[in-house]
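#struct-queue
[09:14] JT: dropping the first one here, sequence first, then the structure tokens:
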Amino acid sequence: MSKHHVVVIGGGGTGGAIIHDLRLRGIEATLVERGELTSGTTGRHHGQLHCGARYAVKDRAIARECMEETYILKRIARESLEANYGLFVALNDEDEEHVPIFIQSCVESGIPTKEVPVKHALEMEPNLNPDIRRAIMVPDGTIDAWRLPLQFFASARHNGAGIHTFTPVTGFRSSGKAITGVQVYDLKTRREFTIAADLVINATGAWAGQVTKMADVEIPITPGPGTMVAVRKRLANMVISHLHPAGDGDIIVPQRGLSIIGTTQYRTDDPDDIAVPEEDISEMYRCADMLIPTFSSQKYHAAWIAARPLAGAASTADDARNLSRDFNVVDHGEIDGREGLVSVIGGKATVLRAMAEQTVDAACVKLGITECCTTAETALLPHRAYST
């Protein structure tokens, strides 16, 4: 058992996966979250389990990683997933021209694909646009955005992790330029206190830049808000994607009795200061109707916005869309001279376990710990175990 103590900032999926990994390696760990668990971007994404097909044309490495992590999540967290596959559908001439490179890119990324005759695709998904030109099946699926992180948190807590919600970080404790702990404020008890740490991991996603500023450190991250709209009917059993280069409103995700269309993309300097633009709702309906013509006639359920934590700097929305969906682990001791602080930025919900593995690998190197990661083989506890 390591005598080192690590503090994790951020109670989203990545923070949950990190503290779970830390405890499996025998490292004492405490997590602090300013609100409730999953109350940031984690609890607001549309819940697609990406096999990587969406990214294969532009980035084979990310696509391959998504496929590998999909297999792992199905092994360790099956209760929070629905392995319902996905259909990429071509709607016009340009889409059809995109099919060969799409299929070849998937093959090179290790993603199984199968072209389904249009007639059969419409039999499987009768609400699809009857004018679709091509249909390619891929192993996409859906994630329960709350249950999956809770499986990581439940497992971490069972293994002795400390988890403090409604406890925002207000500053860092330092010795010279080295970070030695965090100062926090417990909103429930209205008490301020310090938690000592041999290492602090910043896993706050779109808020990572705000956290590092408290340590007088800048980090290249672009919060990229996007709007989603849900209607009260499950209009497809598979994830339905527009087969074209990534754009706005090109994915419909079934979640229990709902159908969710997403998403748009902006950039912002403050992920707390975002709201759904009214025009986004009508645009999402328009895009959804191209894939499933009856989408906009269904009963409205909700519209919301979430800020993607895009790794890299972007000055415009177009620049933000072109940023990689990969993630980076940043050692601020090496880059900024602030020892004791590591940040993880970027990534997607599908690869949260891999993000944690690489982050904790980096932490172990800094702490002189040689324990290997076992999260890919360790089944997670049920999500209900977090509260029981």
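[09:21] JT: and here's the second one, same format:
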Amino acid sequence: MFDRDVIDRAYDDLSLLPGAAAEVEAAIAALDRGEVRVAARGEGGWVVDQTVQRAIMLYFRLRGLDTMTAGPFEYHDKIPTKRGLAAQGIRVVPPGTIRYGAFCEPGVVVMPGYVNIGAWVGEGTMVDTWATVGSCAQIGRHVHLSGGVGIGGVLEPPGAAPVIVEDGAFIGSRCILVEGVIVEEGAVLGANTVITSSTKIIDVTGPEPVEHRGRIPARSVVIPGTRPREFPAGTYHIPAALIIGRRSASTDEKTSLNDALRTFEVPV
């Protein structure tokens, strides 16, 4: 498919990049076709493909700025937009954009949002209006990214984990997910929830709080919250996320989601 050793050597020694151009182009084409992914689930969890990340960074160095048009729109960029959407079964509403080097399975809908290079988006997922899927982010099947959701991207350093949203998750309006956080299968995030690698995710459903970081447990229902912290100037409340319940595993996904939103009064 492409020579990984050639790409890795060119990344470490940029003087070799001209001779590696064909392999870099082949790697990005494979990304665009969904034949490789920046991250995939392995036996011990999600595994990052460092060579593919390196190929993306080298691709930016190889490409020059070019003027592109799409109907009345003009763009001036290094990377073209994805082509052949109809044949791939992807719906994109103007001026939504999927960048070349991103892969979307059939049934993906992109409203006027954005899917960046290296991203992978699963079947039946909705990228709603002004939602953004950053570089290398991995979005599962039948996920809803509501309006204005920001999924952060990552390219450097090679090996850095991207944001991952697993199958069946619902991400409410204006949520922000960055720094390689993982939203596990079936979780629901209420509107304006912000999760970074350092955000305390506090399960408040039991008699004592249970803290998580960097990962939303499967089927959790999460809302924005705060926690007190002492500073020299006094006690102030800093952002946190609160797990206030679980989606039921005994009902189908649609019913479970609707019940969660009603039962826990989650803003979306």
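[09:30] RK: nice, looked through the second one.
[09:31] RK: Residues 67 and 76 are 4 Å apart (CA to CA).
[09:31] JT: good to know. The longest strand covers residues 234-246.
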